[in-house]
Amino acid sequence: MAEEAGKMDLSTQYGFGNITSLGQGVSLLTMPAFSIASVAVILYFLFGIFKLISSGGDKNAVASARNMITHAIIGFLILMLVFLIIKFIPEAFGINLGIF
After folding, report:
1. Contacts of range 50-53, beta carbons closer than 8 Å, 24 or more positions apart
2. Whole-number pLDDT of residue 7
3. Residue 14 structural domain
4. 66 occurs within a structural domain
5. Taking CA 94 as the corner, what is the angle to CA 93 and CA 97, rounded to the nearest 5 degrees?
6. pLDDT of residue 11
7. What is the pTM of this model?
8. Residue 86 belongs to some domain of the structure
9. Burial of 60 (0-12, 13-18, 19+ CB in 10 A)
């Protein structure tokens, strides 16, 4: 029975269209997830800049805005690191994920 579960075609069994396996479904969701996360980081960064500009010299507002900008930069670096790991580590080991 375990062998049958491994060979199940998701497109006919559950009506997922062209997606025939869980791996293919995850592969199709990876780029949109990165795109959404990238837009979120950019918007957070821009909101931090807007807070910095509109702080009016208030020390607490400036510190809050700087923290937002710092967190956005850290988020961007984490996104880049995850992208590089997903992109280049499998290539180094000869694994074809077909995500990007």
Report:
1. none
2. 65
3. 2-92
4. yes
5. 105
6. 62
7. 0.71
8. yes
9. exposed
Per DSSP, helices labelled H in 1-100 are 2-6, 10-13, 22-53, 59-92
pLDDT tens readout for residues 8-35? 666 666 666 777 777 777 778 888 999 9
Q: How far apart are CA 78 and CA 61, in angstroms?
A: 26
Q: Residue 57, by phi and psi: left (phi above 0), alpha (psi -120 to 50) or beta? A: left
Distance from C-alpha of 65 to C-alpha of 55, rounded to nearest angstrom: 8
The count of domains in the chain is 1
CB contact at 8 A, 69 and 48: yes
**Would 100 be classed as within a structural domain?**
no
| Assigned domain for 61 exists | yes
Are the CB atoms for 52 and 65 separated by under 8 Å? yes
Write the single-letter amino acid at 1: M
| Pair 65, 46: CB distance under 8 Å | no
State the pLDDT at residue 98.
60
Judged by DSSP in three states, 84 sits in helix
